[in-house]
Amino acid sequence: MSNTTGAYTLNWTFPNAPTASYVSGGGNSNSLTLDWGTGNGTVIIKASNSCGEGSKAYVANIGCKEAQQVDAGSIAAYPNPTAGMLNVEFNAVEKGNASVSVIDLSGRTILNSSQNVSAGNNTMQLDLTKVAKGAYMISVKSNQFAKQIKIVVE
Question: What is the DSSP code (8-state) at residue 6?
């Protein structure tokens, strides 16, 4: 939830021990560190302000080999609606290059950004302060997937 614009409050929920034990962060900070023990569980962060609220859940499924299952190709964009910085979060199966584009409803690319990503959860930040108000599509493309999500710029 880094670089979320405006005043907001964060609320973290996570499983109790022995599934997970608190290490640091949480509260109204934009990071949380847990010592993951045994079992499966969900970590949820909820951001809220006078415009509303949104949440992001991370599900950890630990099998008998303690291998984590990642939902490859899922994307999220927050805060949505936005008037400034937009965080685009996605999961990649392997490291490589990913591009994120802002596309207007007539199909024109308004903004494009790319970066090297690692396997697992990645976040790219886009500055939309100079983008006109309206509805847009965010397109995330990498070697493993191509997905889109709708956003609103206020």
Answer: S
b/e code 58-75 from CB counts within 10 Å (16+ = b) = bebebeeeeeeebeeeeb
* Measured distance CA(93)–CA(139) in Å, rounded: 17
Domains identified in the chain and CATH numbers = 9-60 (no CATH), 75-153 (2.60.40.2550)
Strands 146-153 and 134-142: antiparallel
Look at residues 5, 154, 142 and name the one whose alpha carbon lies nearest to residue 79: 5
| Whole-structure pTM value | 0.54
CA–CA distance, 38 with 51 (Å, rounded to integer): 38
pLDDT digits (tens, 9 = 90+) for 18-31: 778 888 887 777 78
Output the pLDDT for position 53.
Answer: 79
**Is 102:131 a contact under the CB 8 Å cutoff?**
yes
**CB of 88 closer than 8 Å to CB of 123:** yes
